[in-house]
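Risk register update: the risk of archive-format incompatibility is retired. Evidence:
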Amino acid sequence: MRHVAEQGCLVCDSPATLHHVTSDGHKRITRSHWLVVPLCPRHHLIQHGPRESVEALGHAGFTRVHDIDLLHRAKLMRDTSPHWSGHDDD
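Archived output:
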């Protein structure tokens, strides 16, 4: 997960924290430490945050506004991780 956070925010390339992707844009999916993306606090949080944050927009809205499919990006990061063995319970 540290490797993902070190990549910088998907939207603005600022220092990032992790966002667990828990939706495919239409329905909830099981939370996994393997399905995370890097987002800066501005693009991640709703509390006193901007309207363009993922928590304010939801995953479908975030994809629409920023043209970034969070689930797709999380899977790409997972699949290219040197630590991924193909099993979600690692």
